[in-house]
Design a protein that fits this description.
Layout: E1 3-11, E2 21-29, E3 33-38, H1 44-51, E4 58-62, E5 66-70, H2 81-88, H3 94-103, H4 120-132, E6 137-142, H5 150-161, E7 166-169, H6 173-179, E8 182-186, E9 191-195, H7 198-242, H8 256-285, E10 308-319, E11 322-323, E12 328-333, E13 337-341, H9 348-356, E14 362-368, E15 374-377, H10 388-395, H11 399-408, H12 425-438, E16 443-447, H13 455-468, E17 472-475, H14 479-485, E18 488-491
Parallel strand pairs: 3-7, 3-8, 5-6, 6-7, 13-17, 13-18, 15-16, 16-17
Antiparallel strand pairs: 1-2, 1-4, 8-9, 10-11, 10-12, 10-14
Helix pairs in contact: 2-4, 5-6, 7-8, 11-12
């Protein structure tokens, strides 16, 4: 057991005037299984790069362990998988590699295939296996679930649950609950460490926010009451003091000593009330710094003139003439929210593109109703670059509405001035979702919309869909999202074993 200590960490990118971290201090145990959570753009991957020594910073990071990063950069994907693993962990024996990949339900034969021929999910699994064989290293795992289907996520979560000594960035709530014992959270005002999984952290965080909101409301009332009381006391004091020079009452002069004493007493009361008011203001200023506001989003779906939108009959996708999935038949009707489920490589994204009208090789038949307006969120964000104003103009969307949606999804205004290529993965995905929310459509087709999206925004999107009930077909491996949003599940099954 060893400690990783962070003291007064302050960091900002050279091109930015805003600090990503400012005088941050905390410590973690190298035996912990840490889930690392926080809004997109808060600095999770940046913190990993600081631990890896990639940037200069002020403050101190002290550790007795060496850090390693996932995803590991593979220099030559044309090499055989066993060669890649030997490069990552040269001291490991063959049997150790085989043992680790067996834990991840990966067949031994992939060791003798070129790495680039492995599926994305298989690449994720074998790289994790090799990295965990490096003894004495603390692993920094950055978003491993983005290329894993639901079954793959369960397998990797179970694998990580048996390991120790890692920090895991993930926004999949079920995945985190299955494999971490501590949460490291980047909040609005601080970074905190808490024992437990995501669900226990979220419960405590929500309770703290509810407590602070209630206390803030009470203090606001107290401050208003104290202001009025202090104002009255001060007014009475001035009135009493001015009566020293008043007229005689019943032939008697005012007792200036008594009046002065009474005025002083009133003034002291006013000062006490002011002091209590100031104390309440100081107490209030410490509240609500970490409150995560998620303003409700809006969507404008269009009702189609008939109930049936799309019909697929015995459709199988073909890659290079080879059929990859068993025939499927389903109908998209008004109000459906259909989840396309299946293993990686089973043709889910191709089915979506087929509905969009792309030239996808397939067998069977498909009918799309005439005049159907479709809004599409694609899986890939690598093409996004350039200025936001150009993106708005190229896509013909309302600038005011678009930026308003982004602001509600936790975009700072400063992001509007940056090149889109500098956005985080989650921010790029939010860009595509915001574009879709600006579009009035009969059908919304979203392909893995939640990749890289933070937990708060996931919940925000869930609430949006539940409120406006758009007709949707989507692929998404976040099981919690599937269960809350989907009204039907269409499963795709491979026609042969997928490698």
């Amino acid at each position: 057991m060893a400690m990783i200590q962070v003291q007064d960490l302050t960091f900002a990118y050279p091109s930015s005037f805003d600090n990503i971290f400012e005088k941050v201090s905390f410590q973690i145990d190298t035996d912990w299984k840490l889930g690392f959570i926080g809004r997109n753009g808060r600095g999770k991957t940046t913190f990993f790069n600081l631990l890896l020594g990639k940037y200069e910073y002020s403050g101190k990071i002290t550790s007795s362990v060496e850090f390693n990063y996932f995803p590991y950069p593979v220099s030559d994907p044309n090499k055989y998988t066993y060669e890649i693993l030997e490069e990552i962990c040269p001291q490991a024996e063959d049997w150790e590699f085989l043992r680790e990949i067996a834990y991840l339900n990966v067949d031994a034969e992939i060791m003798y295939r070129p790495f680039h021929l492995l599926s994305n999910g298989e690449q994720t699994k074998v790289l994790l296996a090799a990295l965990f064989l490096n003894e004495g290293q603390f692993l920094l795992i950055d978003e491993p679930t983005n290329h894993l289907d639901i079954e793959g996520r369960k397998i990797v979560s179970n694998y990580l649950q048996k390991k120790k000594g890692f920090i895991l960035i993930s926004h999949d709530r079920n995945f985190l609950d299955g494999c971490v014992d501590h949460i490291l959270s980047i909040n609005r005002a601080n970074i905190e460490v808490q024992s437990g999984n995501y669900s226990s952290w979220k419960l405590n965080f929500d309770r703290q926010q509810e407590y602070e909101v209630a206390k803030n409301e009470r203090l606001q009332k107290d401050i208003g009451r104290l202001k009025q009381a202090a104002k009255r006391s001060e007014g009475w004091s001035h009135k009493v003091e001015s009566s020293k020079n008043g007229t005689k009452i019943a032939g008697l002069k005012p007792d200036k000593g008594y009046v002065g004493h009474k005025a002083a007493k009133m003034m002291k009361r006013a000062k006490t009330l002011e002091s209590r008011q100031q104390k309440a203001l100081e107490e209030k200023s410490k509240l609500l710094k970490n409150v995560e506001k998620t303003e409700p989003l809006k969507l404008r779906p269009i009702i189609y003139h008939s109930n049936d939108l799309v019909t697929l009959t015995d459709v199988s996708i073909q890659y290079d003439g080879q059929i990859v999935n068993q025939p499927i038949s389903f109908k998209i009707e008004q109000g459906d929210r259909i989840v396309l489920n299946g293993k990686n490589g089973s043709g889910k994204s191709s089915i979506l593109k087929l509905i969009l009208g792309n030239a996808i090789q397939h067998t069977g038949s498909m009918h799309v109703s005439s005049g159907l307006i479709i809004s599409y969120v694609q899986q890939d964000t690598s093409h996004l670059k350039g200025q936001l104003s150009d993106f708005i103009q190229d896509n013909g969307i309302d600038e005011t509405l678009f930026k308003s949606i982004l602001r509600k999804m936790d975009f700072d205004r400063i992001q509007f001035e940056k090149d889109i290529s500098h956005y985080s993965g989650g921010q790029k995905k939010k860009l595509l979702i915001a574009k879709s929310l600006c579009e009035q459509a009969h059908l919304y087709i979203w392909d893995e919309p939640l990749n890289f999206i933070d937990i708060y925004s996931r919940i925000q999107i869930e609430e949006l869909i539940q409120k406006f009930n758009p007709t949707m077909v989507f692929v998404e491996h976040d099981q919690a999202f599937q269960e809350k949003i989907g009204t039907k599940i269409i499963s795709l099954y491979p026609v042969h074993k997928q490698f």
